[in-house]
Specification:
single chain
């Protein structure tokens, strides 16, 4: 009789290895949650104190010079980099992504869509930065240098109308691909909304007649 071939043994994670991985997830998750929170606090503080903190960036290693940012000079420098030099106020999406990733790791939630979530969020960040780049001269913090440079490059070749059209198409693409938007759903939504308004108006008229 031919001997039965034994299937190759698939190594299984030991309980200790599972616990070790889980501990690392908790530590990394808590770190990302805290980092996202601190970055948000720093960014908000930067919006109020960026002008007064500008001078402290040049003397970063001077201990006597202090920043008004809630995270002091580290917060002022990091916020200046992400908001002013990169994406403007759209940079607030970045600490959100860190906090969301930390939440999934800390509570051991499903992370299958995490890469997709990051990709869409980065697209939002880029589109917002380019849009606010139109207002760079009035408020440089809105779009940041990246948004201003990309906006200026696109305007040089497409014009303001062309860039506006490109941004509108980007919004439509996001609504269709991520949010599964269709014109039929929009019409159905407005139809139900108007129907509710009409119903409330009729009830209001009936109540006034009863009085």
């Amino acid at each position: 009789m031919a001997k039965k071939r034994s299937r190759p043994r698939v190594p299984e994670f030991s309980e200790e290895k599972k616990h070790r991985i889980r501990r690392r997830q908790i530590l990394l998750g808590s770190f990302l949650l805290l980092l996202g929170f601190l970055m948000t606090v720093s960014f908000v503080s930067f919006l109020f104190h960026h002008q007064s903190d500008q001078s402290t960036l040049e003397v970063f290693f001077e201990k006597k010079v202090q920043s008004q940012n809630l995270l002091n000079k580290v917060g002022a420098l990091g916020s200046h980099f992400f908001i002013y030099q990169l994406f403007g106020i759209a940079a607030f999406i970045f600490p959100y992504l860190l906090g969301y990733t930390g939440y999934l790791l800390f509570f051991d939630r499903n992370r299958k869509q995490l890469i997709s979530h990051w990709s869409w969020a980065m697209l939002y960040m880029m589109c917002l930065s380019v849009f606010f780049g139109f207002y760079h001269l009035d408020s440089p913090l809105l779009g940041g240098l990246v948004g201003f440079e990309i906006n200026s490059f696109l305007v040089a070749y497409l014009g303001i109308v062309g860039v506006a059209g490109l941004l509108i198409f980007s919004v439509i693409a996001i609504l269709v691909l991520q949010w599964r938007f269709t014109p039929e759903k929009a019409l159905l939504f407005f139809h139900s909304l108007f129907k509710k308004v009409e119903t409330r108006a009729e009830l209001g008229i009936e109540n006034s007649l009863d009085l």
